[in-house]
Amino acid sequence: MPAALDGTRKIDRALDDSVDELDPPVRLWSRDEVEALRLKQPVVSLWRVVAIQALAGMLLALVSWFLGGHRSNVVWSVLYGAACVVVPGALFAHGMSRQVFASNAGVAVFGFMLWEFVKIGVAVIMLVAAIKVVPQLSLPAFLVALVVCIKLNWLTLFMQGRVKKNVASDNR
To answer: Residue 66, Cα to own-chain centre: how many angstroms?
Structure first.
């Protein structure tokens, strides 16, 4: 046997042994451990996120009506900016709510990817069509609504965790 192959095999054996020592043993979780994990990590409703985004878009439109001097093009720009986030998000939430009963993990992953591509496609089409759909589009108002509604994903996730923790601590 050539010396190079023997050295390679020694290195492979040494790496395999070191990886085995670092990995903790895998064990099955009990039903109680799984339930405890579910209580610590609440499920976030996609519909709740979409509803909060829609509400924020309407509030921004109301604020822009008063601050924008009652100019309708600013209000429509804000509403369309919010719709560019809410409509694709609602389509995604609808598609994912149908995936809850997927027969196996592969189907669930495929469904997730399919609805994510639908969401991205609809968002891009709506963004491109903004100039034609909203006459005299106010780009600053449109972009503010778009960014605020997108960033509400993180705020909703943060609030969801806070609410669940507070409710769980009250029940003790």
So the answer is: 32
From the number of C-beta atoms within 10 Å of its C-beta (0-12, 13-18, 19+), residue 68 rates as: middle
Using only C-alpha atoms, what is the Rg of the chain?
A: 25
Cα–Cα distance measured from residue 31 to residue 47, given in angstroms and rounded to the nearest whole number: 28
Distance between CA atoms of 10 and 25, rounded to whole angstroms?
24
Look at the block and give the residue holding tokens 């149908």: 98
Question: If you search the block for the tokens 């509604």, which residue do you land on?
Answer: 149
Q: Which of 42-51, 94-103, 136-145 has the lowest mean pLDDT?
A: 94-103
For residue 74, give both structure tokens.
């600013």
Question: Of all residues in the chain, what percent are helix, strand and coil, respectively (each to 5)?
Answer: 85, 0, 15
Least Cα distance to 95 among 150, 53, 46, 57 occurs for: 46
DSSP code of residue 110: H
* pTM for this model (two decimals): 0.70
Write b or e for each residue in 145-163: b if 16 or more Cβ atoms lie within 10 A of its Cβ, otherwise e: bbebbbebbeebeeebeee
Domain assignments of the chain as residue spans, ordered by start: 46-156
pLDDT tens sequence across 54-90: 999 999 999 999 887 777 889 999 999 999 999 999 9
